[in-house]
Each structure stands twice: as C-alpha cells, then as structure tokens.
Design brief:
Radius of gyration of chain A: 28 Å
Pfam families (chain A): BPD_transp_1
Keywords (chain A): Cell membrane, Membrane, Transmembrane, Transmembrane helix, Transport
Order of helices and strands of chain B: EEEHEEEHHHEHEHEEHHEEEEEEEEEE
Oligomer: heterodimer
Subcellular location (chain A): Cell membrane
Number of domains of chain A: 3
Shape of chain A: globular
CATH architecture of the largest domain in chain B: 3-Layer(aba) Sandwich
Strand order of the largest sheet of chain A: 1-3-2
Number of domains of chain B: 2
CATH superfamily of the largest domain in chain B: P-loop containing nucleotide triphosphate hydrolases
Helix content of chain B: 10-25%
Domain ABC transmembrane type-1 (chain A): 139-354
Protein name (chain A): Carbohydrate ABC transporter membrane protein 1, CUT1 family
Number of helices of chain B: 8
Structural class of chain A: mainly alpha
C-alpha cells in the first residue's frame, strides 16, 4: 500500500468535488430553485392550497386578473335639452362607474373592474379602472417604498460612512451604534417600532410633543392611511442603514490616502476631494449598494406583516405581503405565484437597467 | 521661486520624537536629496515641508514666509509620490490638468500648459489614456507632469523611482536631472538609494534616526564622511570599517594596530584627541585598496564578482574581519587564493571612540 494512501485518492476521485458542493446545492435546489420553478408553473394554473378539484391550466388569466386596467371617460349628465345638470352645490353630475362595470354589454372589457383613481378633463371625468384594486395598491406602494428607500438609505449610509471613517477617539462606539439595528431581528425591530409609533403613548408622539412644547397633536402613525407607509419607510431606512454604511466604509477604505494628499497639495477643498477622489473611487460600491437596496426594498414583508398587516385601508399593502396573503390566507396559490412572478420580472428588469446604466464605459 | 529654510524642525507622535531638530537651508534652484535608511524620518521631513504632517516644533520658511501652519495648497509646492497617486478615473490629460482646473484656469491656457508639460516629458501620445493603461515609468512621468504644470516654487519627490526596475530607474534619474537643469526650480528628493543621492544631488542630507548626520555635496560626503554612519552609508561597495587600537599618537599622526592590521601610522590633523590605547575604527574604501605583495592586509578570497571593468573581491582576514576590495580590470582570482593588499596611508580614515571622523592631515 502506498503512503500517499486512501486520503489522496479520495480527494482526487471525480465525485469528490460534487459531493462537497452537494449539501449547498441540495439546499439551494430545494428552497430556491424548486419553489421558483413551481411558482412559475402555478402562475399559469388555478392551483389552490387545498382543493378537491383538479388543477387546470388557465394560461395568462391570473396575470390578466392582476394587471388588468382600463380607462373610462365619463361625460357629465345632461338633461333632455342637452344642458349639463348640476346639483345644489353647482357640481357636475356623472353616471356611476358601476353602470359600466357591472353587466354592461357595451363595455365587456370593463366587466368587474373597480375605480382606481381619476381626474377631471374639462367637463369630462377620466377614470382609471383596475381589475384587482388591492394588487394595484400593493404595486404602487412597493414602487413608492423602493423609490424613497433606495436613494435615501444609500445616501444616508454614505453620509454615516464618511463620518465614521475619521480617525477620532471613540469612533468605534458610533460604528457599533449605527450597526446595531442590523443584527437585531427585523421582527423584533418592527415590534419595538410599533410601540414607538403608538398613537397614544408612543415614544415618537411624546418626543414631538416635548420638542414642540405641547403644540404637537399626537398622531396614530400606523393607524392613519396618510402616515402608515411613511412610518414603515422611515423605520426600514433606519434599520438597514448600518449595513450599507459598512459596505460604503469598505469602499472608502480602498481609496489610497495618497490620492487625497495629492489632491490636497493641488488645492482641492473638502467638497472637491469628495467629488474628484472619493466619489469616483466608490463607483463599484455604489452600483452594488443601489442594486442590493433595491432588491431588498422590493422584498419588503416583515415590517408590514408585524406592524400593519397591510392596513389601514390597504395603505401599506405591498407585493410580497399580497403574495403571501393570497397564497396562504386566501389559499390561492396560483394568484400568489403570479404576483411572485410579476415581482421577479420587475426586479430583474430594474436590476438589468441599473447594471446597464452604471456599466463600465 | 524660492529657497527653503528649516530651523530646528521637530516632529513627535505622542512621546516618540521621530525628527529631532533639523536645521537646513536650501538655496533657490538647488537639488537637495534626503537620504537614509528606512524609518530614518526622511519621508516625514518631506511631508512636513509639503504640509501633509504637522510640525511639532521649529520654523519652516519657504521663500521668506513662515509656512508652519499654511495649507499645503498655499505653500507653492508640488509633490511626486512613490505610488504616483494618479486619479484612476481620469485620463492623463485630466490628471495633469487637475490642479489647474481647481485653480479655475481658463481652458485654452490650461490646454497649453498641459501640452507643454507633455512635450517636456515626451508623453504627448499618452494624454488620452487612463493611468491603468500605462507602465510604471509612464505613470511616474505623468505624476511629474502634474507637478510641472503647476509651476511650483519647490518640487518634492518622495522616493519617486523605487517602484521602477533598475534600467528604468537609471533613465528616469537622468530625466529628472535634465528636468532640474531645464526648469531651474528648487527640488527636494527623498530616497534610500545612495546612488540616486550621489548622482542627482547638489547637496545631500544624510539622516539617521531623525537626526541629520551630515550635509554636503556628494563628493564631500564621499571623501570626508563626518562619522561612521555616513562612511558606511555613502559609497558602493561600502567602506571597509575595521576595529583597531591606537598604539601610539603624536600631534599629527596616529599609529594603529590590531589583529587585522599590523602597526600602521596614519597622518592626521592636529587636535585629534586620540590617546594611545583607545579603541578606534579604521576605514578604507574598496577602491583605495591595491594589490601589493608587501601590503599589510592579507586574506583568503571568499567571493569574486567580475564586473568586467573591475573585480570586487571579498576577503576573509585571519582576524575574522571581512574586507572588500575593488580591483581594476578582470583580476584572475580563485576562491581560497591568498591576496595581499596595500593602501596609501593618507587615504585611510580614522573614527574616534564616539564614531566621529578624525580630520585627515
């Protein structure tokens, strides 16, 4: 028997490599790839969570149901003489939207739709209808969430990173403080913030009252359709800003000190040093952070689930929350899957666009 | 255009003093080289002149203005870094013109200066490239160009050639020397390479452990080193330094002897302060040793380096000391051969018990 023995031959066995990646591969396949393929498949069926009926292929019906929109132009009501009718306040009278969307054979494509939003166009009123109003709300809320969180969180994280990148006594204390929310579970954070946002005795209300010498009237931040989404946005930015701060910091520390020194000798002030040395040096970091924040923001779920359950009046409905609610609470796996697929397409599109816009030129 | 004056310049980090009182005056247009081993404080001293390090104590004048607390950009200096410190995202053209752009110099004038610098450094064809597309020598050229366009009073070079290979170092050395003649500006150059110091400098400042060992022209330092450190540092191969005992001393001679050397009388200047019995150091340059069958130094050949025009021989003396001799031409020598060497007594250097040079006759 040779001294290089069994160990070596086992390592060189053609299957050794496959065996080593097997645990990770199995987990990824089971919990990532398989669900993805299943969701994709289910989104074209009428699959229910539990149902006595066999599953049927329904083509794109789930998607039509979700993203079906229509517009309706309503002309003011006129009397027999063709003169517009006004009510006692002088407001114009319009036919009800319902009369078009319920069993109206002249408008079969609007059948079952609900009014989403509308505006006045001269005397006419334009109404945008959606087949699935809750989904549309979830979609717009998600987009608002992403559009606010991505720039604000990345900018704030950069600002913090620039501040803690200085050689000051005790700077590590600040690094720790800023990073702390990241290591706390998002569910715990959400629960805590429910107390902070409490309408009667919440910390935020008390603080604002104290700072305004009692002038501030308490607000039920999470119970008010006008503030609930913004409350979740603010808390979400706070929670993950430390994580992105650390990534910015690692980017900052790859920029050689001599570049700053050269710029200083050449007469650059603090802003010019940031503009011409720091910012160009952070390019790759910036791309990474924007893409990561965008993806994380689209995946918003826990905060909504713990803090508001999508309410009040659907003002905090978001896509992932809708997908879960449909799939499990309404037992409509097909509908939930379709939402997931739509989310996937949106995130993929945005990521590819971001990568294209920030590509190396 | 200006000279420089350093008066008792000191630098401490906490309790550790790294520059221990440097006095130096540099005439306008002089080429001064700071040379010394790693960690001797030469780069720190240069960075203090540039304004990148605070001056703990003492006065620094550029021209006739005290600049201790002046911002780097207002000192009228330009610096070339060891790492080149080129802005990686800017073209060579923009790198060279960066300082001018910060000064808000009009574009046509800027363009003229950049092209003029490029012409001087023969890098016109590189202007559109990025630093990453350049070789080390080309990058250093760009870094020098960036210094030239600002037309500074004082050029500061921080080991600019140490990242280059030997051949390139040689040619860049010549170019820097040429540039100095062309521009007539004051230049301060830091290096640990004594060959660079000898070839470039009008005036060499030898530093060790934060203390100036000697200031003088290259030949002064070579011919009359002030102490053991300078004697060992300047010259290649190094001066042979052998411990001996002063067996006799008159007003203008010292007779030395030791295990390596039979009794030899060296003429010295009066007032040397050496007493019989002192342990002192005898020094002789390798070039000043000649083959002489009647000579006092006899040793076995340990190593022969044939350079063609000369032969460097390492000898093992019976005393255990080693001796290096540079013999003219291609001397035919074999390992183990016994070689006898002699020298002219007036070329010998003596260093007293403190390591300070004894004045020659």
């Amino acid at each position: 028997m040779s001294t290089s023995g069994p160990q070596k031959s086992l390592q060189r066995h053609p299957l050794a490599g496959w065996l080593m990646i097997a645990p990770a591969a199995v987990l990824i396949a089971t919990f990532l790839i398989a669900p993805f393929i299943l969701a994709f498949g289910y989104s074209f069926t009428n699959q229910r969570l539990i149902s006595p009926n066999p599953t049927e292929f329904v083509g794109l019906r789930n998607f039509e149901q979700l993203i079906g929109v229509g517009t309706l132009v309503l002309s003011p009501e006129t009397d027999d003489a063709g003169v517009v009718v006004r009510d006692d306040d002088g407001a114009l009278q319009y036919p009800t939207v319902r009369s078009f969307t319920r069993a109206n054979d002249d408008f079969p494509h609007l059948q079952g739709m609900q009014e989403w939003f509308g505006w006045n166009w001269g005397d006419d009123r334009v109404v945008v209808l959606a087949r699935d109003l809750v989904f549309m709300k979830a979609l717009t809320n998600t987009l608002i969430f992403v559009a606010v969180v991505a720039p604000v969180q990345s900018a704030l994280a950069l600002l913090l990173a620039l501040m803690i990148n200085q050689k000051l006594r005790g700077i590590n204390i600040f690094r720790t403080i800023y990073f702390m929310p990241v290591v706390v579970s998002i569910v715990v954070v959400s629960l805590l913030w429910r107390f902070i946002y409490d309408g009667r005795n919440g910390l935020l209300n008390n603080l604002l009252e104290f700072l305004s010498f009692g002038l501030f009237q308490p607000i039920d931040w999470l119970g008010n359709p006008g503030t609930a989404l913004w409350a979740i946005i603010a808390m979400s930015i706070w929670q993950a800003v430390g994580f992105h701060m650390v990534i910015w910091l690692s980017g900052l520390q790859t920029i050689p000190v001599s570049l700053y020194e050269a710029a200083e000798i050449e007469g650059a002030n603090a802003w010019q040093k940031f503009r011409f040395v720091t910012w160009p040096g952070l390019r790759n970091t910036a791309v990474l952070i924007i893409v990561v924040i965008t993806m994380q923001a689209f995946a918003l779920f826990a905060q909504v689930d713990v803090m508001t359950n999508g309410g009040p009046v659907d003002s905090t409905q978001v896509l992932v929350f809708q997908a879960v609610q449909r799939g499990y609470e309404q037992q409509n796996i097909a509908g939930g899957s379709a939402i997931s697929v739509i989310l996937f397409v949106i995130v993929l599109t945005i990521s590819l666009t971001q990568r294209y816009l920030t590509r190396e030129r | 255009m200006a000279g420089l004056e350093l008066k008792d310049i000191r630098k401490s980090y906490g309790n550790v003093e790294v520059i221990k009182g440097v006095d130096l005056s540099v005439e306008h247009g002089e080429f001064v080289v700071f040379v010394g081993p790693s960690g001797c404080g030469k780069s720190t001293l240069l960075r203090m002149i540039a304004g990148l390090e605070d001056i703990t104590d003492g006065d620094l004048y550029i021209g006739d203005k005290r600049v201790n607390t002046t911002q780097p950009r207002d000192r009228g200096v330009a610096m070339v870094f060891q790492s080149y410190a080129l802005y990686p995202h800017m073209s060579v053209y923009d790198n060279v013109g960066f300082g001018l752009r910060l000064k808000k110099m009009p574009k046509p004038e800027r363009d003229k200066k950049i092209r003029e610098a490029a012409r001087i450094l023969q890098m016109e064809e590189l202007l559109e490239r990025r630093p990453s597309q350049l070789s080390g020598g080309q990058r250093q050229r760009v870094a020098i160009g960036r210094a030239i366009v600002r037309n500074p009073d004082v050029f500061l070079f921080d080991e600019p050639l140490s990242n280059l290979d030997a051949a390139l170092r040689g040619s860049m050395r010549m170019e820097i020397s040429k540039l100095h003649n062309q521009l007539g500006a004051t230049m301060i150059y830091v290096t640990h390479d004594q060959v660079e110091a000898m070839t470039l400098a009008d005036k060499i400042v030898v530093l060790n452990a934060g203390i100036v060992q000697q200031i003088g022209s290259p030949l002064d330092l070579y011919n009359s080193p002030a102490n053991l450190f300078v004697a060992g540092f300047i010259g290649s191969p190094k001066m042979n330094l052998i411990a001996v005992t002063a067996s006799d001393a008159t007003a203008d001679t010292v007779t030395i002897s030791g295990p390596a050397l039979p009794s030899t009388t060296i003429p010295v200047a009066t007032g040397h302060g050496i007493k019989p019995g002192d342990t002192i150091t005898f020094g002789i340059r390798p070039h000043q040793l000649v083959r002489d069958e009647a000579g006092p130094l006899k040793g076995k050949v340990l190593l022969v380096e044939q350079l063609g025009n000369e032969t460097i021989v390492n000898l093992d003396l019976p005393s255990g000391d080693q001796l290096v001799a540079t013999l003219p031409g291609s001397a035919i020598l074999h390992l183990g051969d016994t070689v006898t060497l002699g020298f002219d007594a007036k070329n010998a250097k003596l260093f007293d018990t403190n390591g300070d040079a004894v004045k020659p006759a």
